[in-house]
């Protein structure tokens, strides 16, 4: 009896241990403190976090325990709060990772309502990355912004157009120059963000989803990003960048073919030739229609003349029989 009792206790303890381990590895949502202009918007923020936070934990491999979010209802309120944080007034959102704090503009202040969701997830990513690395380590800016954009699904045709232009004009910025800051000019900054997004996509496509949390963990102990990349991906930053550039050239090569001078003139000539043939066919069709129309008109006129003559002679005959025909033979 005593043996069975100890066996039962052991099984209960084992079950509790298994449950705690399972619970710790299951992605969850941090405790959220949300301040918003109205309860409906607060619920909307909570819903987005409920969907995004578990995905961020899977992507990054770590999660904060709590996050404070404030949604400014007016431009004035946002400006006041962002000034207190020493942030840019033009921003749509701002994260202070050390404080687990996010400031957002209200959706009513944004030109596109869908932007609110992507901005919120983007800023959440910064909080999660800080939680994973701590105060002592910091990711290269291209890696952090690329991850934030990837998590927020901030790709699209606009970004691909920027990337295509950078590739075709051979204007890609070395990632070593994007480690601590992005260019100040808007066009170059746009290219920096595009490169960051596409490099993260390149890493995920080639090395799988688990490569990102492994890379972040490696950054904690690695001397630099190149060492962490070599440890996880088997290649340093220089080799990774070379592979990435080759991949981008291949991806956008169809644009290069279309925009090459010789190919462009060939395309113009082909379009002109097709247009000339179509125009010639149209002219022949119109001339044929005109000839057919004239012949039909002549036949119709002759038929009308015959019918008119027939009707006239019949009428004269009837009048003559009635003694009403006043015509006289010459």
UniProtKB/TrEMBL annotation:
The chain crosses the membrane at residues 252-278. The keyword Nucleotide-binding does not apply. Residues 60-247 form the Peptidase MA-like domain. Residues 1-23 form the signal peptide. Residues 307-316 have a biased composition (Polar residues). Residues 291-305 have a biased composition (Basic and acidic residues). It comes from the Bacteria. Keywords: Membrane, Signal, Transmembrane, Transmembrane helix. Residues 291-330 are annotated as: Disordered. This is Peptidase MA-like domain-containing protein. The lineage of its organism: Bacteria, Pseudomonadati, Thermodesulfobacteriota, Desulfarculia, Desulfarculales.
